[in-house]
Hints:
Blueprint: E1 3-4, E2 6-8, E3 11-13, E4 17-22, E5 25-34, H1 38-56, H2 60-76, H3 78-89, H4 93-114, E6 120-123, E7 129-137, E8 140-144, H5 152-163, E9 167-171, H6 177-189, E10 197-199, H7 204-213, E11 219-223, H8 226-238, E12 242-246, E13 251-255, H9 261-273, E14 283-289, H10 290-305, H11 325-341, E15 344-347, E16 364-369, H12 374-377, E17 384-390, H13 393-401, E18 405-406, E19 408-412, H14 416-425, E20 430-433, E21 449-450, E22 453-454, H15 464-467, E23 468-476
Amino acid sequence: MTIYQNLIAGEWTGAEAVENINPSDTKEVVGLYASGSAADTRNAIAAAKAAFPAWSRSGIWERHVILKKAGDEIMARKDELGALLAREEGKTLPEAIGETIRASQIFEFFAGEALRLAGEVVPSVRPNIGVEITREPLGVIGIITPWNFPIAIPAWKIAPALCYGNTIVFKPAELVPGCSWAIVDIFNRAGLPKGVLNLVMGKGSIVGQTMLDSPDLAGITFTGSVGTGKRVAVSSIEHNRKIQLEMGGKNPMVVLDDADLSVAVEAAANSAFFSTGQRCTASSRLIVTEGIHDRFVAAMTEKLKTLNVDHALKTGTHIGPVVDERQLKTDTDYIEIGKKEGAKLAFGGELISRDTPGFYLQPTLFTEATNQMRISREEIFGPVASVIRVKDYEEALAVANDTPFGLSSGIATTSLKHATHFKRNAEAGMVMVNLPTAGVDFHVPFGGRKGSSYGSREQGKYAAEFFTTVKTAYTLA
């Protein structure tokens, strides 16, 4: 079987490889992907550093053409790349194709942004002096991405990094190297100069740690666990390095008595269980007021009975497998924790057998949960959600905000008063009204508050805040 190698200084390299296993069928090896060493990582950093002077001064049309070409190829290959994504991560094929299309749109957007780079010319408070304010590339950027969105998250980090003239050392999650390799291969063939985008696949303890230890990275943009995010932050202080961290979530979905029940159930089911609940924006806390609580639980239970858990590529599958055995154990451990804490298992929680061996788990709904239970405080990152009963809107808002996280927050209501108040007072970076908490646009800011995020926002024009540094120049007339 062919080994998909790392790309360092424009050359494919790496003989040691690991298997990429399909979570829908653990007998299938998706491919063999290189596992980089500390030396590989240092070489990639050196290559990016060497390539920075030329790329940082490259023309905006060159950047536009390369980003546009990459986006166009991803769109043309959406079915093929979507199938690859579904095979290596377990997302259903429609979800995987949708994510692939989003990646293409992100590159398309930043291809346009490359032509819109601008600064300011302002008068000085002193006579006969001109002031220019410009944005310049930050430098060598370390990109570390998670396994749950294996093509979209790399896209929304790589695209602005290149758009604004930075060079890159890219480390994808070990579980999902396939989509990342495909992106880098596309850029390599699109004419990106050698050393501008370097791919080093491998273990976080080796590749990731070598990146953290390097004084030559001007910034690291990271999406992943809270624990690893804190390590990125601490290590970066020593090097005075700019950091952008997207970490966990324990997102609430509030359902008020006046909600349209069908809208509330659809939004909650999508938020909590689609993509196997493996989204940082997933709603794992369903906060429901007394007047609608019993009807909501009954309707949710009926909805969950209709959701088919099966092979990600199979037609009619609503929920694919959990990504791997380790995450499956985490999910089932939390299900047992919920039972012991006194929550009632209203639906699911069982392992499922299918035609192929895989990590299949029923969507799991707890009721009679409190906001102080571990299943309500800690991110599970699986298809597990808890219903928390509250008296009224005021208590619902207080419970929604009573969390160490603050990424996404949702409300189902027909009240303009409550919707408006919630948008203003929800302690989250993103607020959804009568919509799933998961599902965002690519041209507007993404990010949260509290323990969910640190640093400037991702996506849209706000990405410039991280990937550039501001210069103010004064000229005597």
